[in-house]
Structure formats: structure tokens, C-alpha cells
User: Which sequence fits this backbone?
């Protein structure tokens, strides 16, 4: 009987602690705007070309010759990105157009698969903290959406959606829709 009461007490204490933490996270999000718009302008890009790995993998792998014939063909011309390539994009963030006053920075790390599609992880560093987002991006399109996966400081436990579309002044308009 005492053991059961002890377990219930521990469970209650853990529940109270979890409620307190969730309440603080919700309170910190409550002070945030539910919609936030910024503009991004590319400042740097690092292309990690894995062509040497593709060539090495064609010879040094555990599969037979028949299986090697099935590997994807790269389209002639151009230098990628190809499946397996990684690209890191850096951006300056601005609060409005025309882009004059910088309000932060962003970085996207994109892992490419086929036909210029990639899985990207984005980090937006703003005055209130960092927002993180991730999702698939079609580099053949002019817009994309990512899922907001969290953040730091004022954006702790943020969730929602990020939409990016072309804008003026070589910028992308980025709309954050924060839930909760």
C-alpha cells in the first residue's frame, strides 16, 4: 500500500512539473505575434559536391554488376545539385521592403535527392531568439512551406508553419504562422 502511494505521489509530482513547464512555454509564446513577416536576401552559399563519392560508390559497393546498372543516370549538363549533394544557404533578414535594416540572419541546410528536390532544415536568428523549421523544398518552384519545429529563448516550443515566396528586391517574403 505504501509503495503504491509513493508511486502515485511521484506521478503527481511529475505531472505538476510537466504542467508548470508547459505553462511557462505557453506564456512565453503568448507574448509573441501569431503572424510574423520578414524578407530574406541570400548572403552566401556553400555547395558540397559529392561527385567523387558517386564515382567511388559505383565501384566499391556490395552489389553485383546487374544492380550497379540500375543506379540513376545524371542528366547531361549542369553541375547539380545531384542526389546526395548538400547545400548550405545563408540569408540576411529584413523587417520590410525595401531591404535596408537587417533584423537577423538565417541558414538553410538542404540535402538533395532527385529532380532538384531537397529536405531542408532552416534556422532563423531573430532578436527574440531562434526559430527552427524543416521540410521538403522543390527547387523547381518559386515558393515552399516548412513546418516550424521549435525555437529558443522567446520562441521556445514554437510551432506552426513557414511560407516563403518570391518578392521584390531579390528578396523572398517569409511568413511565419505561429500556433498557440
Assistant:
Amino acid at each position: 500500500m505504501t509503495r503504491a502511494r509513493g508511486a502515485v505521489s511521484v506521478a503527481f509530482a511529475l505531472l505538476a512539473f510537466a504542467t508548470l513547464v508547459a505553462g511557462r512555454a505557453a506564456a512565453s509564446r503568448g507574448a509573441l505575434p501569431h503572424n510574423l513577416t520578414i524578407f530574406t536576401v541570400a548572403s552566401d552559399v556553400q555547395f558540397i559536391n559529392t561527385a567523387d563519392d558517386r564515382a567511388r560508390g559505383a565501384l566499391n559497393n556490395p552489389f553485383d554488376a546487374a544492380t550497379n546498372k540500375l543506379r540513376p543516370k545524371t542528366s547531361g549538363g549542369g553541375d547539380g545539385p545531384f542526389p546526395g549533394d548538400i547545400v548550405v544557404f545563408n540569408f540576411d533578414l529584413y523587417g520590410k521592403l525595401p531591404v535596408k535594416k537587417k533584423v537577423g540572419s538565417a541558414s538553410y541546410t538542404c540535402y538533395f535527392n532527385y529532380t532538384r528536390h531537397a529536405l531542408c532544415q532552416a534556422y532563423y536568428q531573430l532578436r527574440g531568439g531562434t526559430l527552427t523549421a524543416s521540410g521538403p523544398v522543390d527547387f523547381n518552384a518559386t515558393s515552399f512551406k516548412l513546418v516550424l519545429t521549435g525555437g529558443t529563448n522567446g520562441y521556445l516550443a514554437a510551432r506552426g508553419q513557414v511560407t516563403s515566396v518570391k518578392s521584390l528586391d531579390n528578396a523572398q517574403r517569409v511568413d511565419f504562422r505561429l500556433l498557440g
Observations:
- Helices lie at 2-30, 51-59, 65-68.
- Residues 4-31 have pLDDT under 50 and may be disordered.
- Residues 33-71+78-178 form a domain with the AOC barrel-like fold (CATH 2.40.480.10).
- The beta strands are 35-48, 86-94, 102-112, 117-126, 129-138, 143-151, 160-166, 172-178.
